[in-house]
Design a protein that fits this description.
The structure is a single chain. The chain is mainly alpha-helical and 66 residues long. The protein has a domain of 34 residues. The chain is 59% helix and 0% strand. The protein has 3 helices and no strands. The N and C termini lie far apart (59 Å). 0% of the residues are buried. The model has no long low-confidence stretch (mean pLDDT 80).
Length: 66
């Protein structure tokens, strides 16, 4: 019964396309983390974010890193 359904289905390529898309997306994110986080100062800055100044204290100006 399922063989007949899958043989006549036009949508069988969509799961393969989605799998390839998400795999490529995963590789891009992985490459960004591995190669984009080589600067130790930037990693330390990101690691300290949860312990940073209170966001409600808007009077304190924090430097922006580019």
């Amino acid at each position: 019964m399922f063989q007949q359904y899958f043989r006549d289905s036009e949508w069988l390529s969509l799961p393969l396309i989605a799998l390839v898309f998400f795999f490529v997306f995963f590789l891009v994110v992985l490459a960004r983390v591995v190669f984009g986080m080589r600067d130790a100062r930037r990693v330390d800055e990101l690691a300290a974010l949860p312990f940073g100044a209170d966001p409600a204290d808007a009077s304190e100006e924090r430097p922006r890193h580019e």
